[in-house]
Amino acid sequence: MPTHPQEPDRAASDPVEPVPGGAGRPPRTDVPRPGPPRSKAANGEPGPDAAGPAAAEDEYTTAIQELEDRWRRALADLDNLRKRHARELERERAVERSRTAAAFLPVLDNLELALTHAGADPGAIVEGVRAVRDQAVNVLELLGYPRHAETGVAFDPARHEVVGVVQDPDAPPGTVVEVLRPGYGDGDRQLRPAAVTVAKRE
């Protein structure tokens, strides 16, 4: 009787696949899941980052408010400084004006004294007026504005203003022949140039 080879038992010969761990089991809820570590201070309390982004935003807001307060205080200090400087400048101008006016008071006094003696000797009146003129010129010179009325000097465009040109054989060409109106001051402190006539060039 022929014998047939017996087929191997499929269940016994097939390799058994391992079942993944936990497959078919419900997840455990009592095991904590790993998460990012919390920053703690040296004493074990939560660090500055533990409060979250809200605390950082509050810190930035506070810093911005402090900077704005400093900026407003700086603007207020600058405005107060500008106003104080303007007041001091106006006060200095008033002092200079009063000082200049006070320097001319004796000149006015002498003019009034000359007018009270208008009926006296005409020669004495002329001498009195000339003395008052010299006093006024002296006041201007003390204030830093000397008088310029020289003739026979070379024409200087910084000090002279030509109002006429004349033919004068006795004067070198380009020299001041006559001063029609004196000038006062020099350089940047010049009140006005002297109005002069100049000898014509050949």
Keywords:
single chain, 202 residues, alpha+beta, three-stranded mixed beta sheet, two-stranded antiparallel ribbon, 4 helices, 5 strands, elongated, disordered N terminus
Gross geometry: elongated
Assess the beta-strand content as a share of residues: 5-15%
User: How would you classify the helix and strand content by structural class?
Assistant: alpha+beta
- Let me know the average pLDDT: 79
Structure description:
The protein is an alpha+beta fold. The chain contains 4 helices and 5 strands; from the N terminus they run ααααβββββ. The strands form 2 sheets. Strands 2-5-3 form a 3-stranded mixed sheet, with no helix packed on it. Strands 1-4 form a two-stranded antiparallel ribbon. The chain is elongated. The N and C termini lie far apart (166 Å).
Quick overview:
This protein has 202 residues and is α+β, with helices and mostly antiparallel strands. It has helices at 10-13, 53-103, 105-116, 122-142, and strands spanning 147-148, 160-166, 176-181, 183-184, 194-199.
Topology of this structure?
Elements: H1 10-13, H2 53-103, H3 105-116, H4 122-142, E1 147-148, E2 160-166, E3 176-181, E4 183-184, E5 194-199
Parallel strand pairs: 2-5
Antiparallel strand pairs: 1-4, 3-5
